[in-house]
Amino acid sequence: MDSSLKKRLITAICGVPLLIIVLLSPLWVVTAAVIAVSLIGLYEYFRAVRLTSHPYMCILGYVGSVIIALGANFSASASLLVMYLYVIILFLFMIFNKESVSLIHIALLAFGLIYIPYFLSNIIYIRMTEHGKVFIWLVFIGAYMSDTAAYFSGRFLGRNKLCPTVSPNKTIEGAIGGVIGDGIAFVIFALAMNAFCGEFSDESINVWLMFPLGAVTSIISQIGDLVASSIKRQFNIKDFGKILPGHGGILDRFDSIITVAPFIYLMLSCMSIMK
Length: 275
Known about the structure:
By secondary structure, the protein is mainly α. It has helices at 3-24, 27-48, 55-71, 76-96, 103-120, 122-128, 132-157, 172-196, 207-234, 250-270; strands at residues 161-163, 167-171.
């Protein structure tokens, strides 16, 4: 076993129990965790895109990150309102500080706020839905199982490169393996919840919907991974940070979760997976 894989396994062994504790905790703990991840992720992002030369903009981003997560405890509309008001404030910065703040700086900050705290706040939305304590696990199962299945499929079966200019190690075979693996994982999750979870009394999860839902979740997860890789490529960095041995920074580990969380929330909002 190579040292990088060993570090990843050690980090996972330490991180999984912490994740379980957080997800089983009250809503305020989940909110605090989302805020913490968002703040660290924003710091890594600001450093990657060279926005730290404008500290007041970074502070504006950090404050916005906290407000977005707190607003998510009320409704999705509250967080959307915060995002809208922040964009207006950024416009004012551009108008009255045009000598030091360019449209590029405004765009980088706005993208960071949407990409990290706003997308991650969907974890809070999911937690607040009916059966949210159960369905919140789909975010992490979808992201991590897709990553794991894609990794091993690519390692043993990979021949054709998926996107060599962005992520040279990813293969088409690995991507397909991730899609199939996530679909199977979602089906197993549904069967286990229907059999053992006391959350459902008069209804159950529609197992037939879970494979296609898992497959699409894997595609969204892999897009999130590639987006993070693309950002790193454009700004010539290997990892966003070093806080997680074997993984890099928070964004290196949560890149898939960032894109999966909104998708799972939208699916729960737009369609019924219960029968």
